[in-house]
Amino acid sequence: MGWSLVASASPLSYSSFHTYEECPLRWKFLYIDRIPETPRGYFTFGRVIHSVLEELLRPMVTPTARRLREGEAQRTLDEWHPKGAGRPVELTLTREELLAAYDRSWTGEGYTSAEEEARYKTLGRDLLLRYYARLSHERPHPVSVEEHLEARWDGIPIHGYIDRIDRTSEGALEIVDYKTSRELSGEDARGSDQLSIYQILVENNYTEPVSGLTLYHLRSLTAHRVPPRPKPTLLALHDRMGMVQDGIRSEAYEPTPGRQCARCDFQSRCPEFRPVPATDQARLRELVDRFEDLRANEKRLELELRHTAEELHRAAEGFGVHRIPGTHSVAIRRREETWQYTLDGLRARVNAAGLEGRLGRGSAEEVRSVLRDPSVDPELRRRLAEAGTRRVKWYWELEDSGSGG
């Protein structure tokens, strides 16, 4: 029980959160049982590149104001300069020193062969030299490099190591996360939970606003920049992280099978892949075969039940009745009504009216709440009502006829 208390109080990182969402049992093996995974070359490669970039960029850092507590900030000298002023800091490492740092940081851990390691090492050398050349004429203005930040996000403790935080020419902050993957797109940046968590961390630790989020693809030297996340996006992520925190607190560690199982190191420990004891295989095989037969009968009965209910419905419609007596029971027809709303064409008006937060998911409950609100513009409420589609479903229930027969 002590482990559970420690785990539930520990801050969630993006990696921890993502791991639990993907498979709670794998999360337990990693964060509770502390079972190490097999090293993989591409992870080692990423760590080495990040380490060298930290050594290259750290001398360029000019710190900025940090948030101490609500309404209070630490002022630093660079705040007294006009926004965007100041010359870029010169590179302190030469090309030769950069490559020496790369060789010093290199490790062959996790590569499957000497050939694979050699390919990755050549790739890293080329990647760093091209990035170094880019820095020679496109200098960033970092306020921090590889900084560890912590925060409490509406009751959820979170933390993370952020590759780089830059000051923009307007005096705001841009979050930069390096990626060494083969491919990366703007869609990856728009959908990145990692960048969303980093935005919350920076907003809770710095006084300047966040004006941009960037996934920087090192192989192509492409910066995929997107605006900061709007409130509804962050609220949806907060809900998911709250569910993860609740799952950890309640020790919910059931496995979640999926494509990720193919790369999981814990298959031998997982009940999804644990073999049945040989002494019980024959008995359990008979049970599986029986279950298969029952499932086939279940599908046949479901089809027959649906056809019978449809025939009863046609009869009820034809005679204008809702109750049809049988020998022992009375079949009673019930009605279920649901609404669906298509808001795509109304989003601009909804946002302009300040209702984006109230109609974040566009669910029927959210829309009906706005429709009942007399403070909302009547014309907008009329348009919202017209965007709704009503769906009616009929179903049957059985009631004892009380005949005693």
Give an overview in words.
With 405 residues, the protein is of the alpha+beta class. The protein folds into 3 domains: 2-249, Lambda Exonuclease, Chain A; 280-319; 322-405, no CATH class. Helix content is 43%, strand content 20%. The chain is built from 13 helices and 10 strands. A 5-stranded mixed beta sheet has the order 3-4-5-6-7, sandwiched between helices. It has a 3-stranded antiparallel beta sheet with strand order 8-9-10. A hairpin with a 4-residue loop joins strand 6 (210-217) and strand 7. Helix 2 (14-22) packs across helix 3 and helix 4 (41-57) packs antiparallel against helix 5. The radius of gyration is 30 Å and the shape is flat. The two termini are 57 Å apart.
Count of discrete domains: 3
Q: Which class do the helix and strand fractions yield?
A: alpha+beta
Distance between the termini: 57 Å
Mean pLDDT: 88
**CATH structural fold name of the largest domain:** Lambda Exonuclease, Chain A
For the biggest sheet, the summary is: 5 strands, mixed
Segments where pLDDT lies below 50 for 5+ residues?
Answer: 1-6, 77-86
Globular, elongated, flat, extended or rod-shaped: what is the shape? flat
CA radius of gyration is 30 Å
What's the level 1 CATH class of the largest domain?
A: Alpha Beta
